[in-house]
Amino acid sequence: MRFGIENANESHREILEKRVAETENDFAEAIEPVDLNCLVQWKKVGAFLKKSRRTISCEGSLLAAQCLSNGHIMATENLKDFEVLKPMGLTAENPLA
């Protein structure tokens, strides 16, 4: 979200900064830092994808790594892209299905 603010039209930045601050405050307990374990897992995900000759967006692979390193279930509407990581132990579910 912060990256989006940097790229937003100058006239929108003030309200966006306020909304991001409110969101970060409201969801503070659910926000996890990207730590060393996650980064190591991200490299493993990248290597696995390369070996499998598959790709996932940079953001998607980082989210998958965060889920793998913390034992979380990946919530996504895009189950197809993440099926490839099932052998690594990733569980993905569509919360809207």
What's this model, at a glance?
The protein is mostly helical.
How would you characterize this protein structure?
By secondary structure, the chain is mainly alpha-helical. It has 2 domains: 1-31, no CATH class; 36-93, Rossmann fold (3-Layer(aba) Sandwich), CATH 3.40.50. 56% of the residues lie in helices and 4% in strands. It has a two-stranded parallel ribbon with strand order 1-2. Helix 3 (36-52) packs across helix 4 (58-70). It is elongated. The chain starts with a helix and ends with a strand.
Quickly list its features:
two-stranded parallel sheet; 2 domains; 5 helices; Rossmann fold; 97 residues; mainly alpha
